[in-house]
Amino acid sequence: MTFPETITATFLLPLFHMLCFSKEQSMASAMAPLSFLLFFILLSFSAPSSAAGSVGINYGRVANDLPTPDKVVELLKAQGLNRVKLYDTDKTVLTAFANSGIKVVVAMPNELLSAAATDQSFTDAWVQANISNYYPATQIEAIAVGNEVFVDPNNTTKFLVAAMKNVHASLAKYKLDTNIKISSPVALSALQTSYPTSSGSFKAELVEPVIKPMLGFLRQTGSYLMVNAYPFFAYSGNSNQISLDYALFKENPGVVDSGNGLKYMNLFDAQIDAVFAAMSAVQYDDVDIVVSETGWPSAGDSNEIGAGPDNAASYNGNLVRHVLSGNGTPLRPKTELNVFLFALFNENQKSGPTSERNYGLFYPSEKKVYEIPLTANEAPSSSPPSGVGKSQVPVSGNVSTAASGGQTWCVANGEASKEKLQEGLDYACGEGGADCAPIQPGATCYNPNTLEAHASYAFNSYYQKQSRASGTCNFGGSGFLVTQPPKYGNCEFPTRY
What we know:
The chain is an alpha/beta fold. The protein has helices spanning 9-25, 31-46, 69-78, 91-96, 113-118, 120-132, 160-173, 204-221, 231-237, 244-247, 267-281, 309-324, 388-391, 418-429, 451-465, and strands at 54-58, 83-85, 103-108, 139-145, 181-183, 185-187, 191-193, 201-202, 224-228, 255-256, 263-264, 288-294, 338-341, 398-399, 409-412, 479-482, 486-488, 491-492. 35% of the residues lie in helices and 13% in strands. α1 (9-25) packs antiparallel against α2, α6 packs across α7 and α14 packs across α15.
């Protein structure tokens, strides 16, 4: 999967200064082109950034009350979601996504793996009927061959790699192998150990028969490993040992890995890095990961500790901010995170515990189960249920709970790197024209004297001066919108200039 890359604040300011220096040293004839390029760069800085990872969603249909696929396409567009993952190749669904601009991951179910592994003509026919007949109008970008095969009670593991190779060979016959990737989602249960994170390793019985051949295939074809990661399961089963704040991306002391000394501030990063560590242990650390499923249920049985709407909103909302911040994991800080949330709808016909039917971000009526941002510049459009709003504002300092009356403020993302925050602060107070006098030494908003507090004030000043225009609270992924007025110490954040 190739994700778009754009200019980000990480290197915009150095490039800006380089261009200014070049302008001073260049001949008069070069002034106009450089001025145009400088204008383009400044425009890019204030535009929404797509370089900081990707958020998609899983569209399951184990329900009898869901909206029609064409309505689902409209819903995804309205929410700014441009990636969706399916669990089959339903004709009506694939037709609905044609010419929608939404990228689609489709799936070959586990029950087809045996035939796909043993009969090339089967995969030829399957690819023709389910892929080539819809592509490129429907932007199929990947095929998930099976799902969590290693825990399939029908023991389909032995067919997995051969099936993946045959599907890829069939794609090649239709000249689609360079455009459509092949992978297979694995659950964290494929790991023998995951704590401490640096000791992550795959189950010994899987390594030689399937893990190494699969990773070798992914490396050869330039694909990635799909991983289903659910901090909810780890927390629910070990709530006496795992901090809820740690699981929900909230403020917490963090966990230091005793093996490599890295500090983890959330369980999600620790789980993903455990998979990276396991891949490194078998010498496939050059293969990327896409998180094919992750989520938190809004309801559960009495023994499903942590299930509920507030926690679901906190986990999914803070995860989206984390992904769109541009930060990777502690082990792979420069590798963007790409995730598919689970799931689009609550599905009333799923079996198992109550949680299984309550992972949706939306009810079948298309009403939101709870409010979370789904894009870099989105803020909740209405007041969320009690308690959720405060959990959606991961800024240090005291955040007022006064009603905002529809107002929005721009604040710094505390998870962003110091470099990004400083570059954003420098831009806002410099070329951006923000009013930064109140955060100078001795001024009313100098205290607390922290980078996050000063950046938040500067970001908000710039955002308000730009009339809260779309894209003016991005700062390369280090800024985001809140609907409650931020307050650091005695500093009031203005709403207009």
